[in-house]
Amino acid sequence: MEMTIEQIDQTVLGWLANARQQILESIKQPLDVDEKSSQRDLVTNVDKEIEQYYVQQIHALMPQARIISEEGYGDDVQTMDGDVWFVDPIDGTLNFVKQHDEFASMLALYRDGQPVLAWIMDVMNDQVVHGGPDYGVYCNQTRLTMGPDYGLTDGLVVLSGVRLLLDQHAFQEIAKSSIGFRIYGSAGIAYMHVLLGKAVAYVSEMKPWDFAAGAALGQGLGLKVSDVDGQPLNMLLSGAVVVSTPRAHADIMGIEKQAKGL
Ligand code: IPD
Ligand code: CA
Ligand code: CA
Question: CA 127 to CA 189: how far, in whole Å?
Fold first, then answer.
């Protein structure tokens, strides 16, 4: 018999609780840290172990499902047909290594390209934002509703630091137009700020496992989710992603159009 959405949610919350215990144990020991593309792009033994754990659990739960994951234990996925999981075992690995704080663990389930359920866990604060469009969005057991529909002039915007320095996608104009900007170094932590109503937008350019959970949960709460041109996201490619209140979305789209001379 097919599992209900609630049963899938409860099952994955159990995986996250196990992963959290494993992560908390691991940071008591020295981490095994390797560089990927640069000295700012790290992977640790914990990223690999946690991804392997999630991949095993997903295969046991849904043998037909395919997995898009960061550290290479998933599948080579070319279409969004059927059940596709996104896995980012440790999001904000630099924070994980240097701060032992402000990092997340993220999973998302999409069916035929549409979000079903997603989970973002702030590991050190023991908070999980989870849910989806047909299920509602929760922070631990508390149901969330969308906060006030503030625009940029009334709200904090969360941005990627590197993209802001390089002024990609008019990030500096977005920052200047907002009441203030914040940089967290973890997409998951950034999305949690928007989902919990502490910020009006998170804009960044990222890989699918970085934005899949935030996009699913944002959609579930009634936030706007698009690329910087206002188009739907391509879940198989890296891209610039906006998750925001409707008003902040309109403000950001205006800035993007102006920057392109439209
Ligand atoms: C990174 C973080 C960071 C974002 C990068 C991501 P990782 O994820 O979410 O905030 O700006 O684009 O790659 O590599 O630590 O999982
Ligand atoms: Ca990530
Ligand atoms: Ca990661």
Answer: 10
From ligand 3's centre to the CA of 169, what distance in Å? 23
The helix or strand, by DSSP H or E, that contains position 19, with its residue range, turns out to be helix 5-26
- Residues lining ligand 1, CB < 6 A? 88, 91-93, 160, 185-187, 204, 206, 210
In this structure, what CATH number is given to the domain that contains residue 115?
3.30.540.10
Say if residue 101 is in the same domain as residue 176: no
Provide the number of structural domains found in the chain: 2
> pLDDT per residue over 104-122, tens digit each?
999 999 999 999 999 999 9
> Domain of 157?
152-259
Name the pTM for this structure: 0.98
Q: How far is the CA of 211 from the centre of ligand 2 (A)?
A: 8
Q: Which of 127, 158, 111, 152 is nearest to 2 (CA)?
A: 111
* Ligand 3 center from residue 56 Cα (angstroms): 17
pLDDT in tens, 35-76: 999 988 989 999 999 999 999 999 999 999 999 999 999 999
Sign of CA dihedral 219, 222, 227, 230: positive
pLDDT per position as a tens digit, 186-209? 999 999 999 999 999 999 999 999
- Domain end point (choices 143, 178, 194): 143
Residue 139 and residue 13 share a domain: yes
CA of 89 to the centre of ligand 3 (A): 6
Report which ligand 1 atom has the smallest distance to the Cα of 95: 15
CATH number at residue 171: 3.40.190.80
157 and 120 share a domain? no
Mean pLDDT over the full length of the chain: 97
**pLDDT band, very low/low/confident/very high, at 262 (cuts 50, 70, 90):** confident
Check whether residue 135 and residue 10 sit in a common domain: yes
Atom of ligand 1 nearest to the CA of 94: 15
Q: How far is CA 110 from the centre of its chain?
A: 14
Residue nearest to atom 11 of ligand 1 (CA): 160
Spatial neighbors of 7 by CB under 8 A, at least 6 apart, are: none
